Amino acid sequence: MSDVEALPVKKGRICGTANIQLTPENMAELGAALGTLLGEGSLVVTARDYYPPSRMLKRAFSSGLMSTGITVMDFHGATLPELAFSIKRFGAKAGIQFTVSPFRENNVNLKILDSTGAEFTYDRLNELLRLYETKHIIRTIPKRIGWVSYAEYIHDIYVASLTSFLDINPILSFSPRVVVDSNFGPSSAVLPDFLSEIGVNHITLNSHKPPIHKSVSHLPPIESLFTLSKIVTAAGAQLGAAFSADASRIVLIDDRGKILTPDEVTAIIIKFLPENSRIAVSYTMSKLIDKVAEQRKIKVSRVKGLIGDISKHIRRIRAIFGATDGGEFIFPHFSIAPDALLTLGKIIESLSIAEVNLSKVKNELPSVERYSVEINLGETTPSMFTEYMVNNFEEIILSISGIKIVVKDTCIYIDFIPQRNKIKLSVEEPSGYKINILREIADNLKRDLETLPQLY
């Protein structure tokens, strides 16, 4: 083995601090490793969010690809859905997205997609990392070094394809109004045109590059969701939505300002799917999914693993929909990667066909019994609490609207209650065992919250 320092991996993705754990030097080496894995003459597409370190690291990675004879098609600032879409359109062997990490502000995540547009599984990622660590890299001769080109009209092509995937006539008749927070991401380059094309009146927020020299986050801060909620109700909008920085995740807000969980959004989408179909979801998703699926005679497969594992399972069972409790939604007839813009479009389409508001559909969802405990946050902010949870729990799922942790095979839901400066911990289908686990976690959190503000 070489003495190359191992790259940090979090939840199946390479993730670390720019210029400390992820440097231009090791990203160039990793790019060369991927180029060696794919083979000389292959085409790779690359993209990034608007966070400056993402731009720096992507350029270094591209130079490594070029050194092995790879042709790079660079989309500059573009969303993950656009990247996945372009892989199939241009026949690329892989796609690379650099985006700010959901686990810690100012860290960078590297998402690697395969030739189908699905994210690398654990096994595939480990194969790449072994090649990087052993330095078994095959560089090409000078006259075969790869080239970099730019697909100038990728945004327009993507919007046209996205629009053609939806039934626009009901949307035009319903004429909905929506409010969308782009979270300083590249979705701002496509969102206004997309919504205009399908006949949606819209208000966009944070649809510009991040403020200079300020922290950015992959997921919109919970405080931003509360602001978005107020704007939705004040504007009389049918719904609101907030995107992650790369538009792979989405959170919805109904016409009454209620923030929906990924479980609720998944259940709502299922209500509009064809009967007797198949879907694949994260194994930790709510029992609500099974209740709604049973009503629709839909078969649910629960998958343990990453979003790439769910994509792989979708292909194997020929499912028509996939979802994670992190707020990622897949419509495989369009793309095998999660797509926040398409998810927003499909929700708008479904509501327009049924001519109903989102709150009505949400209120008609079946109930699931829960046992809950509330805890005062005190001086701890939601961002402090989230960072604490990431640092102290191994099996944790972050969505834009909340947190889930898995402790001793028990899934615990954690929701913020800003009006009372509290968090609520819940377990579904409570048993004595689950309640004891919940109380133990709650007691530990109460103790730690007393000192947390001094630590952060």
SSE layout:
Elements lengths: L8 E2 L2 E5 L6 H15 L4 E6 L3 H16 L3 E7 L2 H11 L3 E7 L6 E7 L8 H13 L13 E3 L3 H11 L3 H7 L2 E5 L9 H7 L3 E5 L16 H14 L3 E5 L6 E5 L7 H10 L6 E5 L5 H8 L3 E5 L3 H11 L3 E3 L5 E2 L9 H15 L3 H6 L6 E7 L5 H11 L3 E3 L4 E5 L2 E8 L4 E7 L3 H18 L2 H4 L1
Parallel strand pairs: 3-4, 3-5, 4-7, 8-9, 8-10, 12-13, 12-14
Antiparallel strand pairs: 1-2, 2-6, 5-6, 10-11, 14-15, 16-20, 17-18, 18-19, 19-20
CATH architecture of the largest domain: 3-Layer(aba) Sandwich
Instruction: Give the fraction of residues assigned to helices.
Output: 25-40%
Mean pLDDT: 93
How many extended strands? 20
Description:
- By secondary structure, the chain is α/β, with parallel strands linked by helices.
- It has three domains: 9-152, Alpha-D-Glucose-1,6-Bisphosphate, subunit A, domain 3 (Alpha-D-Glucose-1,6-Bisphosphate, Chain A, domain 3, 3-Layer(aba) Sandwich), CATH 3.40.120.10; 156-363, Alpha-D-Glucose-1,6-Bisphosphate, Chain A, domain 3 (3-Layer(aba) Sandwich), CATH 3.40.120.10; 370-455, TATA-Binding Protein (2-Layer Sandwich).
- It has helices spanning 24-38, 52-67, 80-90, 122-134, 154-164, 168-174, 191-197, 222-235, 262-271, 288-295, 307-317, 340-354, 358-363, 382-392, 432-449, 452-455, and strands at 9-10, 13-17, 43-48, 71-77, 94-100, 107-113, 148-150, 177-181, 201-205, 239-243, 250-254, 278-282, 299-303, 321-323, 329-330, 370-376, 396-398, 403-407, 410-417, 422-428.
- Helix 1 packs across helix 2, helix 1 crosses helix 4 and helix 6 crosses helix 12.
- The mean pLDDT is 93.
